[in-house]
Amino acid sequence: MASKPIEDYGKGKGRVEPMYIPDGTFYKAEDFLVPSHCKPYIDKILLPGGLVKDRVEKLAYDIHRTYFGEELHIICILKGSRGFFNLLIDYLATIQKYSGRDSSVPPFFEHYVRLKSYQNDNSSGQLTVLSDDLSQFKGKNILIVEDIIDTGFTLTEFGERLKAVGPKSMRIATLVEKRTDRSNGFKGDFVGFCVPDVWIVGCCYDFNEMFRDFDHVAILSESARKQFQITSFVTSRIYLAKRDSDQIH
């Protein structure tokens, strides 16, 4: 089941569709335990933490079924994907342990990369990949783990770099896929949720390193957007490693 034409990368062919979160769907933050330093900025919860964990467990199960018995190389895109990645591989290891099926290969091999495509709030027009030699993935099954698919441009370019080394297969796992008119049409293969085009924080999503400790995926409040001067869908965040998972508002 792991075999898939390389040219299908980013098209989402044959995938199980993600859990669809309609526009305007949310929970009141007051119904959850919100840390005091987060309260001024959060008034709506988009994805409760328990739902996120259960959904990631299902993604891990689907991935296990797809790659069981084959060598799988999982690439974590740092640093935003770290939380989703850690949860995903924990579930993968547990499912392998208790599946009752013997395998001669480990459930996965871990790899980490940093992708940089923006400088000083402006796109440099080039993608910088900070990682070990990508040629190690020649003839391998690759699963790229990203926390969010927004525009899709960086993942598209990174995919072209990987295709050049000749992997056996390439797929994408992501917790969230946004519905946005800025998208180039890129789609993941193992996707947790399809969400509206809103600015999200919490769980594995941060703003200026804040909110990572919040257990739920929340919508940043209007007052917070004004305080942080997030006024339009324009580049607004600078990171050491800028990625497609950055939510460009």
TrEMBL record:
It holds the Pfam family Pribosyltran. Signal peptide: none annotated. The keyword Protease does not apply. Its EC number is 2.4.2.8. Its cofactor is Mg(2+). Pathway: Purine metabolism; IMP biosynthesis via salvage pathway; IMP from hypoxanthine: step 1/1. It catalyses: IMP + diphosphate = hypoxanthine + 5-phospho-alpha-D-ribose 1-diphosphate. Keywords: Cytoplasm, Glycosyltransferase, Magnesium, Metal-binding, Nucleotide-binding, Purine salvage, Transferase. Its main location: cytoplasm. It is an enzyme of class 2 (transferase). It comes from the Eukaryota. Residues 49-207 form the Phosphoribosyltransferase domain. It is found in: Cytoplasm. The keyword Cytoplasm applies. SUPFAM superfamilies: PRTase-like. One of its GO terms (biological process) is IMP salvage. InterPro entries: HGPRT, Hxn_phspho_trans, PRTase-like, PRTase_dom. NCBIfam families: HGPRTase. PANTHER family: HYPOXANTHINE PHOSPHORIBOSYLTRANSFERASE, HYPOXANTHINE-GUANINE PHOSPHORIBOSYLTRANSFERASE. Belongs to the purine/pyrimidine phosphoribosyltransferase family. This is Hypoxanthine phosphoribosyltransferase.
